[in-house]
Write a structure and sequence with these properties.
By secondary structure, this protein is mostly beta strands. 7% of the residues lie in helices and 37% in strands. The protein contains three helices and 25 strands. The radius of gyration is 22 Å and the shape is globular.
Length: 398
């Protein structure tokens, strides 16, 4: 990350201080960044980070130190278009569940991102806004945090730049930020579009090489995935402080808009899970906790009504709730929105159960499902609740 200040350590995110689910993704001798998603088995990153590579490794900073987890497979978005920065997304599946300490992230599912403040996390090159990133200056990459704001969309920027530009972003799919230093002269989107806003002060920063695939968070939810930087000019005016594409003041950066791609992300995750139940009779309501690591337990949500039209999305919100089991000790709490897309009548929700070797009684936790959109639970019911039992296998005696 390139920052306003010359004190880059100010922006380092150390293990144990949050964002432990932001990871380094290495492939083919290069690296980028990524973010661990709910369920603890998949990392969202950029497709171009994985170009031409058969071997992918994910490195995580944990309170116990940095660990490496190999990937079993990955999939890139089928419409990935490097030339225009479109659909630059990939999902990497881990060979094993991530450590409990690695924070899982939800997707930001609303389309109101423009104008929102964001936190950018990644392992990219460091530097300072006046001079740009420093090549080779991050030999042992550290995870860093900067702030910015989603300023506009790809199509709005393209329209402002005029017909001479060959870049063709998919409508609604890209979010754009600029790197401000408080000067109107280097306010990129002010110069290029008339969007005059000189930024967030000393906290503002921009992505740099190695940050590709890293998340942009709105309220701790993944709203964007870092894709590219650019140094642009319009009508002979260049806001770039040094006219070199190096993540310096006056440049812009583009992000894949997660709300636009949420259907591909959700359905890819579902398709990759061979253990998710697809019939109610296959759902197991108990799970042995195991002595260590993570075990997975599933809930299956089914819709038996009629859609108003074939392309309608149906959704519910859901959240785990303690019974005799305690979130963070016995299982990992989760709260999110589940969407049934056109053609879908069911989907599974996975919860991670934490193994230990402490003798204890069997314990329970709940999943509450509420706020149905596009359908109802029937009979005036406002909430559905299911329970799961974690069975002890450590010799507890009553």
């Amino acid at each position: 990350m390139v920052t306003v200040t010359r004190d880059p350590d100010r922006f380092r995110v150390l293990p144990g201080e949050g964002y432990d689910g932001v990871v380094q993704v290495s492939a083919g001798g290069v690296y980028g960044s990524g973010v661990l998603l709910n369920g603890g088995r998949a990392v969202l990153t950029s497709a171009h980070v994985l170009d031409g590579s058969d071997v992918v490794t994910v490195r995580m900073d944990t309170p116990a130190g940095r660990i490496s987890v190999s990937a079993t497979q990955y999939t890139r978005h089928p419409l990935y278009d490097a030339a225009n920065g479109n659909s630059d997304l990939a999902l990497v599946w881990l060979a094993e569940s991530a450590p409990v300490s690695a924070e899982r992230s939800m997707l930001y599912r609303h389309d109101d991102e423009v104008g929102s403040d964001i936190s950018l996390i990644g392992y990219g090159l460091t530097g300072e806004g006046l001079t740009g990133h420093v090549d080779g200056g991050n030999v042992d990459p550290a995870k860093r945090l900067v702030e910015n704001r989603f300023d506009t969309t790809g199509e709005a920027l393209k329209e402002a730049l005029g017909r001479g530009i060959t870049w063709d972003p998919l409508l609604g799919s890209q979010l754009i930020i600029d790197f401000d230093n408080g000067s109107d002269t280097n306010d990129a989107l002010g110069v290029l579009m008339g969007l005059n806003d000189t930024g967030r002060g000393s906290a503002e920063g921009l992505i740099a090489p190695g940050d590709s695939g890293g998340p942009a968070f709105i309220d701790d939810k993944v709203a964007g995935v870092a894709t590219y930087t650019a140094s642009l000019s319009r009508n002979g005016q260049s806001p770039d402080v040094n006219d070199t594409q190096d993540s310096s003041f006056g440049e812009i950066a583009g992000f894949q808009r997660v709300s636009y791609y949420q259907q591909w992300i959700d359905q890819s995750l579902r398709a990759a899970d061979p253990n998710a139940p697809t019939r109610s009779e296959d759902v197991e309501t108990t799970i042995r906790e195991g002595d260590e690591g993570i075990q997975l337990v599933y809930f299956l949500l089914e819709f038996h009504g009629e859609r108003d039209h074939p392309d309608q999305w149906l959704s519910v919100d859901y959240a785990t709730r303690d019974g005799t089991a305690t979130a963070g000790e016995d299982y990992l709490a989760v709260a999110d929105t589940l969407i049934l897309y056109p053609g879908e009548a069911q989907a599974a929700i996975v919860v991670e159960v934490i193994g230990d070797d402490t003798p204890e009684p069997d314990e329970t936790f709940y999943l509450d499902v509420f706020n149905p959109q596009g359908g109802s639970f029937g009979g005036g019911v406002a909430q559905l609740t299911a329970v799961r039992t974690i069975t002890d296998d450590d010799g507890w005696i009553a």
